[in-house]
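REVIEWER CHECKLIST
Item 1: Sequence provided? yes
Item 2: Single chain? yes
Item 3: Sequence as submitted:
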Amino acid sequence: MGSISDQTVGGLISTGSHGTGIAYGISSSEVTALDLVTADGRVLSCSETQNREVFRAAACSLGVLGIISTVTIKVEPAFNLEAVQTPVKLDDILGNLDKFVNSAEHFRFWWFPYTDDAVTWGANRTDKKLAPAQESWLRDKFLGHHLLETLLYASSFVPSLLPSLNQGFFNLLFATKTTTVDTSYKVFNFDCLFKQYVSEWAIPM
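Item 4: Structure as written out by the authors:
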């Protein structure tokens, strides 16, 4: 799963949405069949054995081939994840990227620009007792959301604020190692807090 689940299945697969994990493909790789309503009103059934070329294109088509009306996807029983979030220096991650990427079933990291600080996040399936993340209204809502949003907006007019802002944000919310055990969708999903402009790039590891 990706980090945002408030999406339609058709939109999820059509835009190449993805979760994280070196052994996993994008969401459309989990599709086994779909029905496509074409521009002339026909319903085209597609799979690996039926209209194969259209199927492979339609599974990540940005909607240009028609309207996806039904989708068959691979599923499995619900499971729990243990997620460990750790502050790490960026150079340590880049210098040992292969080790980090293979250290957990699901792995990601993020860097705080203008600092040498980064955070690693790794999650594995577990049978451990649930230990959900504990949220603080002051830290997570007021400081980590409302104040941060205001300061980021101000930095669009005064960019010199960004180095100090990023360092302070890291120190406030990410400088301590944390461990969470919860149902998978609660671990995968996170609140993006406020409106963001996002660009995604694929870079060879």
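Item 5: Key structural point noted by reviewer: The chain has a mean pLDDT of 92.
Item 6: Recommendation: ____
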